[in-house]
Write a structure and sequence with these properties.
This protein has two helices and eight strands, in the order βαβββββββα. The chain is an alpha+beta fold and 159 residues long. The chain has two domains: 118 residues, Immunoglobulin-like, CATH 2.60.40; 34 residues.
């Protein structure tokens, strides 16, 4: 699921809000995070017939606001057509994260279309799971640091 945020929370008449007047529906931002979790890069040649990865947010895409990669790599080509988002073809490095921020007209719902990536399993993730993994990692790291500090302090106390 993408992370979505309504840009207009007041549901007054369209005439009172220029964004609603121009778009017709409540505008949202949608952040779509693509993560390559494999041990190998996904080469450009894995895009069957040079066709891009295709996603559908099921509401009109007004604009691509921002595209970022982590680690810092060349940005993949990103195009839109109505409610559809096309990414690539481009090299996607192993453990690379691609964040695509969209301005959409209405509450989006992400669905994938028939895919063009060969030998790649595409699964929809859970943003809450990513936050939980970060939280668990931070707790684990703090636990190790606390243990090392306790050990060092105990060593100094004996001497």
């Amino acid at each position: 699921m993408p992370t979505v945020t309504p840009l207009v929370t007041r549901r007054g008449p369209r005439e009172e809000n220029p964004l609603r007047r121009s778009l017709g529906r409540i505008p949202y931002t949608a952040d779509i995070l693509l993560i390559s979790r494999g041990r190998l890069d996904i080469p450009r040649s894995a895009f069957d017939g040079d066709r891009p990865l295709q996603l559908d947010v099921e509401v009109p895409i007004v604009e691509v606001l921002k595209v970022t990669t982590s680690p810092d790599r060349p940005l993949p080509p990103v195009k839109t057509d109505g409610s559809k988002l096309f990414v690539g073809p481009a090299l996607i490095g192993h453990r690379e994260k691609i964040m695509i921020s969209l301005l959409v007209e209405g509450d989006p719902n992400l669905s994938s279309l028939p895919q063009s990536l060969e030998n790649v399993d595409i699964r929809q993730g859970d943003p809450g799971q990513a936050r939980q993994i970060r939280s668990d990692w931070l707790t684990f790291t703090l636990g190790i640091v606390a243990s090392v500090l306790a050990f060092l302090l105990a060593g100094f106390a004996i001497h």
